Amino acid sequence: MTDTPPPKSPRTLTGAQRRALRGHGHHLKPVVQVGHAGVTDGVVAATLDALETHELIKVSVSSEAPVDRKQTPQDLADATGSHVAQVIGRTALLYRRRLDDPQVSLPGVVDEAPRPEEDA
Known about the structure:
Layout: H1 15-25, E1 30-34, H2 41-54, E2 56-61, H3 71-80, E3 83-88, E4 91-95
Parallel strand pairs: 1-2
Antiparallel strand pairs: 2-4, 3-4
C-alpha cells in the first residue's frame, strides 16, 4: 500500500453529468484568461469569484501559458475545488456547485472537493 494523499479536486463526474455541463456551457464565453504567468493567485481568485457567481465557466488558456493546455485547467480545478468538465483546444469548462441557490441541475450526485478557505 502507498500513503499518497487523495487528490484535492473531485474527479468523479459521470458521463451524463459531463454531457449536461457541456450542454449548459456551449453558449458561454470565457470569463477567465490564463496567461504567460500561468495559474497565479490572481487567476485563482478570479476563478473562485466567477465560479461563485456563475457555477459553470469557460477558461481560456493562452498559447504563452507555461503549462500544457490540458494540465492548466486541472491545476486551476485543484486550486478552486472545481471539476474540469471539458477541454477543447485552449478552452476549458469548469464547474463547482454554488452553496446558496445552485442554478445548474445535474443528474445523480456530484462528488465535491473541499473548498479553499475564503479570506474574510
